[in-house]
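ok here's Amino acid/amide ABC transporter ATP-binding protein 1 (HAAT family), seq below lol
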Amino acid sequence: MSITPPNIILHAADVHKNFGGLRALSDIDLQVEEGKTHAIIGPNGAGKSTLLNVIIGRIPPSSGAVIFDGTVLTGKAPYEINQLGISRVFQTPEIFPDLPVLHNVMAPAFARRDGAFRVNMLRSVGSEHEIREEAEAILDDIGLHGRREHHAGSLSRGDKRRLELAMCLIQRPRLLLLDEPTAGMSRHDTNTTIELLRKIKSSGMTKVIIEHDMHVVFSLADRISVLAQGRIIASGLPQEIKEDPRVQEAYLGGGVE
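and the structure came out like this:
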């Protein structure tokens, strides 16, 4: 197994994943530098979501390991990985649809504070001023403060995605994984999300973003890795990726707009 350099907070080292006779990931060596935004791009079926699921423990690798800040994640349960400081925004938002938007954001903060969800977690919501203020500030940042009392299930798909991002941010993760965070959003909401992600970059939070929208990728990424047929075919600075003929051939149809 390859050695993780000291400035690398996340290392998917020699990762392979097979589903029966199908090889979904091969020879993955992904290194994410602490405090940076690392985008993963590639065509549909390239293995991007599979790789994220391996990282967060939803899918075990067939071989290899995932290392986060010196801790081997392989074999740990998803909740253990989350408690180490890794949060993920999913392609399909995972929210509490029957709870108000504000309570959706507060719930992960209670879990962060108490180590687990409590049966009576929401009974004393009104007295939890610090958590409420933090949740309201995050909702203000993402443009949902005016809907804080609405049931989360009534939100549009784009707003549900922004709500899930808020639920991740209140956990103050060291590493935030975003699986197509702007899918289903209007261009205005996409640009709002880009500005929010730029804003939180100054906090030192590391981000890994899977995204099809090249406007989002090139607006945010410090480094880009390109997956094709389960392999990383290129990794480098955004301008290097734009100019790489392998990337243009495999993913971008001959060029990057």
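fwiw The chain has a mean pLDDT of 86. kinda neat tbh
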